[in-house]
Amino acid sequence: MTRRTDWAEYTDPPAAPGGDTAHDTDGGIDSGAWPEDGTAYDGTAAPRGARRGRNRGGAGGAWGSDGPESPRRRRRRGRTEPSGEDGGASPSSRAEEGTPPVDPVERARAICLRLLTGTPRTRKQLADALRKREIPDDAAEEVLSRFEEVGLINDSAFADAWVESRHHGRGLARRALARELRTKGVDSALIDEAVSQLDSEQEEATARELVARKLRSTRGLDRDKRLRRLAGMLARKGYPEGMALRVVRQALEEEGEDTEFLGDEGV
Predict the structure, then answer these.
(1) What are the CA-CA distances from residue 169 to residues 3, 82, 155, 173, 204 (Å)?
(2) Which end of the chain is less congested by CB atoms within 10 angstroms, N or C?
(3) CA 239/CA 234 separation, integer angstroms
(4) DSSP 8-state code for residue 145
């Protein structure tokens, strides 16, 4: 009597999606290709064993030889491969965009604009700055002349503003103001025009204000020392000697000091 054979022991395993039988690389059946609970594969998740290095869908399968690509791997690839949006520009070419312009005229223009930001300057001050930065003379001359044409450099306006500010702010006299403007390269004719804003009466009135503020701090000193301090302060600010002595003598007389020793010298 023939023994009944269980043909289920010899039948092929169920076909994987796509019609291929799930075999491993050495001809054996990959028992991990299907869920152990017997549920049917619905295509929404990777079959078990798909991450074991076996490509069920061939070389161009959806899972690939290493399984689905992880977000971390995609990010890593995005850092190493050019996106193509910027034309594949190299980092070195982008870094060069921040380098100073090679054209000396452009360099000179950038330097002058930076120096003029918030602070007026004379042409000589800007020329000295360009020379210090080794800008060629022809490029510097071109930029400075152009800046004068458009009013960015105006030595006359600079001198007027300087006299106004330094006289009222520091109490400087015309002689001291002219000396400062010469050191900044302002032309002599422009200096004379600027300091002429101050007449002798205004200059003397400012000298009296200076002495009145300083007078209190000299009280208690002997007469000669007070005289030297007050007159010396006016001299450092550019006031003529005769005007300085006259203003100091009048201030001391108002405090009851004897000023006969001064006589009329320097008046």
Answers:
(1) 124, 61, 20, 11, 15
(2) N
(3) 6
(4) H
